[in-house]
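Quick question: what would this complex look like in 3D?
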Amino acid sequence: MIHLKKSWRSPSRSPAELFSHLVVWLCASISVVTTIGIIAVLCKEVFAFFSHVSLWEFFTGTEWTPLIEPRKFGIWPLISGTLLIGLGASIFAVPIGAITALFLSEYVKGTPRIILKSVLEVLAGIPTVVYGFFAVFFITPQLQKFIPDLDTFNALSAAIVVAMMIIPTISSISQDAFEAVPKYLREAAYGLGARKYQVATTVVFPAALSGFVASVILGFSRAIGETMAVTLAAGATPRLTLNPLQSIQTMTAFIVQVSLGDTPAGTIEYQSIFAVGLVLFLMTLGANLVAQWIVKRFQEKYR
Amino acid sequence: MPSREAMIEQELLVTPRILTDRLTVKYGEKVAVKEVSLSFYQRKVAALIGPSGCGKSTYLRSLNRMNDFILNISIEGKVLLDGQDIYERKVDPVLVRRHIGMVFQKPNPFPKTIFENVAWGPKRAKFPKKDLPQLVEDSLKQAALWEEVKDRLNTSALGLSGGQQQRLCIARAIAMKPSVLLMDEPCSALDPIATSRIEDLIQELKEKFTIIMVTHNMQQAARVSDVTAFFLHGNLIEYGATKEFFTRPQKIETENYLTGKFG
Ligand SMILES: Nc1ncnc2c1ncn2[C@@H]1O[C@H](COP(=O)(O)OP(=O)(O)OP(=O)(O)O)[C@@H](O)[C@H]1O
Ligand SMILES: [Mg+2]
């Protein structure tokens, strides 16, 4: 007979336990400290920026010319450029991503499903600069055959190529969500004499809504945060417009432009990139809040 | 001279509503159901019993082509619904499932409202929208659930108790007006009171539907069924009127099973 030694000492006091607690705390605090650091730096420069430019000008101005005289710091051209790409890409990517995911989770079984999913995930791993090239040297020339007044650098090609980049993100995460819908719900539906597309659209999709919305938000955040491909394909012309045939500038592209130039730290154009960065961050945050609301409102909870 | 309906009715009592003819089901190489021939009649409840893994569920799910979704399953023999082989090439399995409803072991309502649950199947089958409320009410009444839920039709079905959920699943199935109702251990997730309500319900439903149920509970089979079939290792061992079956089993295997000598 083996007896477990009785001990009343709390196990959390043992050295191994204490050590592992320490490691966990350390790792957790590193990410917290980093986040706080980033916000602190951001805020410092943003405060400096707003001591030169009024909030009013920044948030109502319709011209953005920080690098040429007379300097104007109206954020709207950058916001419109960013949204043009973000929403434009989503218009293509959300339906295609959702249908791809439903197709893979409901219509394809076994090995073909695994192969197709891996192919999509490889697409997500292609460097973004390659997508940028692809837009400039392939998509734009092709589109110009149909749309003669399309600029060399334009929002449309950029949106298309960004859509291609975020389709794998959306479809892969959605597919996981769709596949996680319990089998017993599908059985109930098929047992009632439903067709596959009916099960996919009226049972699987509503039950996996939160996963789908999460994938869309992640895709959208990637789209508005995307830098390289957009800088290459859409150009650097801050312009308050919703016309996708022209060259525009997104927030990220502006940040790249300033960072790559020889702008000394402490100048107002240097500080402006922090203000722009903060707005971008707030936009992503806003998208997340909207998503949470959508999920709360429409999700069908199956547990 | 009897009326036409009465004659059809009479006819159905003597010709099987659904039957299997040497039905064999294999998962890959593994034989789960072996050459089972059985007939099920109108207004009769049939119980399928047998030890775990003997192929009851496999057999039941072959009757409405729910097994079609399983990879590398193979099915031989015939399943005739009102004389039509449901495995014939020209037959659409989706339509088969509209004629042969199914209730599962674990209550599985959709995460939708009570109304939507019952209306879901008919809607998919293009049932006229304006008649839906009446159909939902009738189905819930037939499933003995109407009184309990009539004031909360637009609340989530997941707020119901397990027994209520199972009756909702029955209502949902009969809203399709099937001719056969398959039930795979419909009470195994329920407490004794909910179980007895479902058993009473089955007694009422058998007036309208041919019911085939799998059960592990032999008292239940004795209480609710008119005929009983005993399966063992994929073989049909014995099939007969329930009373005879439990009092004077013909086969030694059946007797052993009933007396608990194995299982
Ligand atoms: N999808 C499947 N793939 C392979 N084998 C299966 C599959 N489903 C069932 N089987 C096997 O087929 C045999 C019959 O299974 P089935 O589920 O029909 O038994 P059952 O009589 O319903 O048992 P229980 O009373 O436990 O529900 C079992 O040996 C089981 O392991
Ligand atoms: Mg079973």
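Answer marked as accepted. Chain A has twelve helices and two strands.
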